[in-house]
Amino acid sequence: MSLQSNIFQMVSKNTIKKCGLNQQQTINHLRFVFNNAPNVTLLPKDIRIHRINTSEFRGERVTVRNPEMTVLYFHGGAYVGGRTKTYHNFASRLAKKLNAEVFLATYPFAPENPFPAAPERCLQAYKYLLAQGKDASNIVIAGDSAGGGLTLSTLLQIRDCELPLPKCAITMSPGACCFPDQQLIEKHCKSDAMLTASYVHNLIKTYIPNEPDRHHPYASPTKGDFKGLPPIMITVSEDEVLYGDAVKIRDCAEKAGIEVEWLERSGVFHVWPIMVPFVPEANRDLNKIVRFIKRYH
Which letter does DSSP use for residue 169 in this model? Predict the structure, then answer.
């Protein structure tokens, strides 16, 4: 484990991880830390960022001069917050390494806009790319944490709507199961530097207040049939409370005969790959993500 990773985990434990919060306290706290996270942006040369604000797509386009590939990215934030700006370092390096454009999509947050508002907006973002003339076979869908869950629900929606599927998908530490294994998340709560078991339960109630909806595959992709989906890469830390979600997603994909690239690490934190260029483990595993995508280009 690198010094940088140790420092990040120490800071996270002192600022993000809070035990014993009720539902409203969880929303308020996570919104504050995710929307006000310190952010130093170091853009590679020749990367441009453009704001897009239309009825079909809201967010940013991070791109090289002449992109050959498109990535649609859904940010994390526990379904209640988060900013695309936090992802400029990650998106710009992904764009540079792939010679691509990365569309950082926004989506409505709970509890003001509960399920299905977020997945509906994510599907709309994909349709926007198709309407712009993007070839689906040259699109990658990716996301982390809540955005990782939305990546999976978007894939299921695309297939169910009989739209052309993207070439592959990346889901990092996905929050994708409304029925977590209580014993497992309590176990990992001790080692997770950022999230807690109570966060998971409070956020499920916040994002999907109507209990019957929690069984819907767009809300809980682990309840879905993955048949016909494109190859999926899953990254997860052995030490995080969402480890069980990632394992269930892998099982769903393998059961459906979907090709899965599984990247599991110990000693790292929730969604560590996004912390490029500051954390060595993130730099190393961004290259693995790039190699996975290039395999289907």
Answer: E
* Tally of CB atoms within 10 A around 69: 21
Q: What is the longest distance spanned by two Cα atoms in the chain?
A: 49
pLDDT band at 18 (very low <50, low <70, confident <90, very high): very high
Tokens matching residue 111 = 């509890």
What is the reported pTM?
0.98
- Which residue from 37, 80, 116 is spatially nearest to 202, judged by alpha carbons? 80
Domain that holds residue 42: 3-294
**CA 60/CA 38 separation, integer angstroms:** 19
Structural domains in the chain (count): 1
Strand partners, 142: 73, 170
| Active-site residue, selected from the candidate residues 60, 188, 270, 281 | 270
Distance (Å, rounded) from C-alpha 146 to C-alpha 116? 13
Is 240 designated active site? yes
pLDDT in tens, 238-267: 999 999 999 999 999 999 999 999 999 999
Q: What is the pLDDT of residue 39?
A: 80
**For residue 174, which of 113, 249, 267, 107 has the smallest C-alpha distance?**
249
pLDDT in tens, 192-243: 999 999 999 999 999 999 999 999 999 999 999 999 999 999 999 999 999 9
Tell me whether residue 12 is one of the annotated catalytic residues. no
Please tell me which residue in 60, 101, 240, 281 is annotated as part of the active site: 240
Q: How far apart are CA 223 and CA 201, in angstroms?
A: 17
Residue 259 near residue 239 (C-beta atoms within 8 A): no
The predicted structure's pLDDT at residue 38: 77
CATH code for the domain in which residue 213 is found: 3.40.50.1820
Note if 297 is an active site residue.
no
Options 145, 153, 198, 220, the catalytic residue = 145
Query: Of 40, 38, 58, 42, nearest to 50 (Cα)?
Result: 58
Q: Which two tokens stand for residue 224?
A: 């879905």
Please tell me the distance from the alpha carbon of residue 232 to that of residue 236, in angstroms, as a whole number.
13
